[in-house]
Amino acid sequence: YYYDMRKQVFEYDEVMNNQRRAIYAERRRVLEGRDLKEQGIKYAEQTMDDIVEAYINPELPSEEWELDKLVEKVKQFVYLLADLTPEQLFDLSMDDIKTFMHEQVRNAYDIKEAQVNQIRGGLMRDAERFFILQQIDTLWREHLQQMDALRESVGLRGYGQKDPLIEYKSEGYELFLDMMTDIRRNVVYSMFQFQPQPAVETATAETV
């Protein structure tokens, strides 16, 4: 009985350890400054994919796709795409729209980088590192609390002939994916909203 209990605790802990390894690997990559721009762009492209998938149902005819809402949502994240119109997406397949949005957001990212680096060379990389780490640390802490609550709730489901561990693994994985999505979206929003101001040098008056 005690062996089974220890084994079950180990399996629950292993779920969290796998998630912890994944998020720490992401965090370590950021701290080491590896491919920060590519990571920022990847986040932006994945966020565009999320938006496309939210407003386009490939099962429906293209006339019923919510392109107005899609474009509106894109602009909420990326103000530099203010000139984007639904008409530009007419006659495109879902995959073509994703490809088009990748191109658009990459161009917007380059423009944003040029604007930010005018203030100080390399500032964009510093901003990417700051915003990614900020979101990872904040949302990971929230995720740990959600996983604790989930572990308690699935324990009660054992009375309903469901395997609590299977439920925990499945729902825990979904929570982890949701967290990663939120990290990406928040970073993309923060990066494009980032408006650094040039440092103002203040001259100190000499007192007589």
Overall domain count = 1
- Poorly predicted sequence stretches spanning 5 or more consecutive residues: 202-208
Quaternary state of this entry equals single chain
Beta-strand percent range: under 5%
Count of alpha/pi helices: 6
- Secondary structure: number of strands: 0
**CATH fold type:** Helical scaffold and wing domains of SecA
Structural description of this entry:
- There is one protein chain.
- By secondary structure, this protein is an all-alpha fold.
- It has one domain (2-193): Orthogonal Bundle (Helical scaffold and wing domains of SecA), CATH 1.10.3060.
- The protein is 73% helix and 0% strand.
- The chain contains 6 helices and no strands.
- The longest helix is centred in the last third of the chain and has 35 residues, at 123-157.
- The model is unreliable at 202-208 (pLDDT under 50).
Task: Summarize it.
This protein has 208 residues and is mainly α. The C terminus is likely disordered.
